[in-house]
Amino acid sequence: MSEYTALGAHCFMGAFTVGVQRSFKVLAQMEVFDLGERTVEHNLRIPFMQGPFETWREVAEQFNGVELVYGNPRCTGFSCLGHGHCSRARGAFSSPTIDLRQVFELASWLKPPLICVESVQQFGTIGRPLMEQLYEKHGAGYRVAEIYHNAAQFGNAQHRQRLYFILYREDLRLPVFEITEQLRWRDAHVLVGDVIGDPRRRFATWDDEPWRRVANHLDRDVFNADQPTLSDVRKLSPPLLQHYYTTHDKPDVVALYHEMREGCNIQRMPDAVLSTAPRLWAKKQAGIGFSFHQTKRLNRNAACPVVYSASGHYLHPEYHRSLTVRELARLMGLPDDWAILGPAPIAQLGKGVCVEVAMWIGALMKATLDGIKPAYDDDSAWLRFDLDAPSLGWVPKKPRLVR
User: Fold this and answer.
1) Residue from 353, 387, 370 nearest 153 by CA
2) Rounded distance, CA 356 to CA 149, Å?
3) Number of H helices, E strands in the chain
4) Across-strand partners of 304?
5) Higher model confidence: residue 48 or residue 335?
């Protein structure tokens, strides 16, 4: 275990922590929300200290001396999912961005050498005023870095483009390119089929025969139940429970599952098919755009769309059903022995960080403390690293969809 210690804040179900733990001893997660509490305590065996922010300062005193404060607070204030919402819900100073301010307030009490938060790339555009305000308020004695990256660079099946906003003590340097070069993915692009359809992996899909045999021993088929009962859950071990799925669509959409091709969504279905669903057909005839959350069938030979809180609308490439919790967890890079427990398992995953990316940023933070010197020598107070730039050749191109 590393000699360095870290404290998470607003990390929800702990995927960020999974990667950071490779390089740091994580002491606890500080949380306002209880989403992910059971998941963290079951899998990571660290304290999930949940309570109102007003109580954080007294609790935080026991963590004086940590080297890293990190988190992935809610990004809905900047995300494209917030288009059309009022200023209270979207923008640099909208209500969800209170999470970011709380992480930096916590860090201001502990004054660690490193502060690192993850968010969507729009944090650097829509959220720029908040970014600058945070540095102005808490940046004395620190330099700042923005690191733009893509999860595909590190072997994840998603082209999940995100931003790390890092404050690091003035006597430190970030060896960004050196650590990225060590950990970047060098093999063929990882595709959906590689993650959830590889027959060499045990229990590759719930449709495999072993899962059918298990279901035969239950009072009813929990894999097809909208909500498993408590009695059902007690009969399942935590990893097994993750193979159930919930249908998130209305019956008229479910009726179209068998007509939906790989890589297609509801809006792009032929008129002759869509017209059999009166509600959807009326919407299209009226020129009303379909929701960003519309049902999509994944393409096994393509990258996965970004896993987010409404990914229950993603259909399996082959089977006429939604993805299971386990399949979504694999797409986020979590190992199969991880159990996502408690309410809203898909929302927990969507608010997470890809494990491969978290391992990279944890290694970068440790290398910074170890004093590994970067090849560049830049004393600027504010640096920007665009690792998603085509000129670097690190990011695989998105495979073309096969219609």
Assistant:
1) 387
2) 12
3) 16, 10
4) 158
5) 48
Sheet of 382-386: strand order equals: 48-50, 25-31, 5-9, 68-71, 114-120, 161-169, 142-150, 382-386
H or E stretch covering 279: helix 278-285
Give residue-wise pLDDT tens across range 4-22: 999 999 999 999 999 999 9
Please say whether the beta carbons of 236 and 217 come within 8 A.
no
Which structure tokens are listed for 233? 């859950």
Pairing of the two strands 382-386 and 142-150: parallel
At a CB cut-off of 8 Å and minimum separation 6, what does 182 contact? 363
Which of 85-99, 251-265, 284-298, 320-334 is the least confident region? 85-99
Residue type, 366: K
Q: Under the phi-then-psi rule, with left for phi > 0, alpha for psi from -120 to 50, and beta for the rest, what region is 141?
A: left
Of the CA atoms within 13 Å of residue 173, those in its CB half-sphere come to 14
Contact 348, 39 (CB under 8 A): yes
CA gap 93, 78 in Å, rounded: 10
Mean pLDDT in residue range 17-31:
97
SS3 at position 368: helix
What is the model's pLDDT at position 87? Answer: 60
In a 3-state reduction of DSSP, which class is residue 118? strand
pTM of the model: 0.87
d(CA 391, CA 14): 33
Place of tokens 């059999």: 276
Q: Using one digit for the tens of pLDDT, what is the confidence trace for 33-63?
A: 999 999 999 999 999 999 999 999 999 999 9
pLDDT recorded at residue 389 = 87
User: Packing angle between helix 355-370 and helix 176-183, nearest 10 degrees?
Assistant: 140
What type of residue is 24?
F
CA 185 to the chain's CA centroid = 19
Structure tokens at 143: 């330099």
Q: Is residue 262 within 8 Å of 402, Cβ to Cβ?
A: yes
